[in-house]
Give the backbone structure.
Amino acid sequence: MVEDKRTPAARTSFWRSIKLVAWSFMGIRGNSEYQQDLAKVNPMHVVGVGIVGVLLLVVGLITLVNWVVAK
């Protein structure tokens, strides 16, 4: 069995980064909650999750357009 070597804080920071980026994409996060999240996340996690989120958004839009045009 493979043991997870990351600390619970690192895993929490990563999931918090995912939530931070998701809320940012929607643009509906409150300022006080945003400031709390910024204090508790790793900036590299936010950059990585942001890049992956943008890529997923672009691929999703391209797929949607191709699907609509094909009909």
